[in-house]
């Protein structure tokens, strides 16, 4: 199966220092996983997006920057953790489309993968969990799920050689829940067990000889999490798992390395699953312990003798996935199946950790004069950002616990400020089309159908709207008169040929329709159609009019971009041989065009043209940080092109690029010189050399010489810095270190 990706555009490596990059999604709905505290740098956090990115915060989660992008948009990073020594992060990869499943070691200082290894079983296995003993990742205990059940492997050679130490097929098909290596003793291994199909269940398996032999403790008790006391590895705590009527919910503790176990008294409340999910000893405050239960947070300051247990209603907090403790105090950050949460009082109260990284299912942007409006669908609702005020309003946001939030496709009306059309739902269950005249705050239903794929407003009468319906791939066109929203008049328009409709344009006296690979026009409101142009073997995905030419428009097809300046009488090939899905003409600069391109999971390019298509700028996947997106839109404002991408894990990415830079490259900027843009800056600044990809590390210093920020990315977030003058030092891959002054507004 091919993973389809839409990505844009906007600058060459040589121009990148002049582009502005920002995250535009409202941070209230951000999702992060595996949040992990750095053990040495105060307020530094690492986390994983919902796909292929690792982000970092230098201010305890107030703001976030991109740290690392895995170079495959079809992959997902999971199981993030900090290795002993605090120098390396490790994570596993899940990829449904390639055989890349494995574990990767990322050096924090260099922001580079220094080693990796595949799961030691047949390709396509799922890495369930693992434990790594040392900072170099030479000794590893790895649990994988295969077609025949769980298998556990052990290595002391960094994955060059593996020993199979457990096979569920030889152990009554009992699953392994968690594996662990004893701190300070790499030969002593632990495995907690779940359920099996027969009468044999649970228990904890312990080996003192690197997995050659095993002894079992707590037989029949379904177990999952395990943790060791940092100051004394002989103190171990495990917790019970779910779905076993014979297992009471309990914590068990051993103080003799696992030989004997006793129940830790704690008063749990009954809910649904009643399982212990996470046990975490504080890395330095040895008597502080956190435990995450289904809907409860347990906290002890006396080594587990007594507990403060706080139960939460399901809509407020439910099911923690991971937990990290601030090494400098008792604060904890929880990854949950809703939003990430923070507690400073042992779970008695929790607050949301905000980030602009969420799943966005549609983006539409429009301008009136120089004022831009951004509309997008996220977390089941509708959001509007007004760039004249920089305020984002959200409407009908669904609970983060919703299993499948509503998908809202929003189309902004270019003729009426504040009017948008909203397609909600679709497919087997059908969907509805709405209109709003107040930026989405309220809405009125216009019609129902199986799916909506396009819309155009008649410029001669803005109460006449042409709506493209999917109709299970057959395609149909409806004319809606919405003069009276209480009595919408719907008329089906007959269209030529069969198959899906790729787009519709409405002019004062003409309709232009794309169907399969052919463009048609009608001068009698769809009663009759004339074929204009056919791209053989291609499918048209988008139509766009040229606002600087009354007879000009373009088509984005699976075989390139084609334009006409005379209402379709003659055509020019603007870009050939690419799978284009979005095309937009500038309304300010003749000949400037933006094109978004669908490509395979590893080939995400995008283009921008200028001087009537005589030149193109291409952005590489690395320059786009391997973002995956299914929706994008463009605005041309003043001297800038603004590209908006709705991503599946990083919210909305905005690139703003000066048009004047399209035709000129400043060759005077050598590798021994740093340019900061913008400068002065208030939110983001990009460090530019003649080779952007050669920027290895960026550090920001106060005027007194104190390092206040460090990043391996050329674009950095400085919004949290105080106003004033700073020094920015950049190190290139060749080892050259140069600096420049930055003014923070």
UniProtKB/TrEMBL annotation:
Keyword terms, alphabetized: Repeat, Signal
Secretion system C-terminal sorting domain boundaries: 678-742
Coiled-coil residue spans: none
One Pfam family of this chain: Sortilin-Vps10
Signal sequence coordinates: 1-19
Domain named Sortilin N-terminal: residues: 151-266
PANTHER family: SORTILIN RELATED, SORTILIN-RELATED RECEPTOR
Identification of the protein by name: T9SS type A sorting domain-containing protein
Species in which this protein is naturally found: Flavobacterium arundinis
Lineage: Bacteria, Pseudomonadati, Bacteroidota, Flavobacteriia, Flavobacteriales
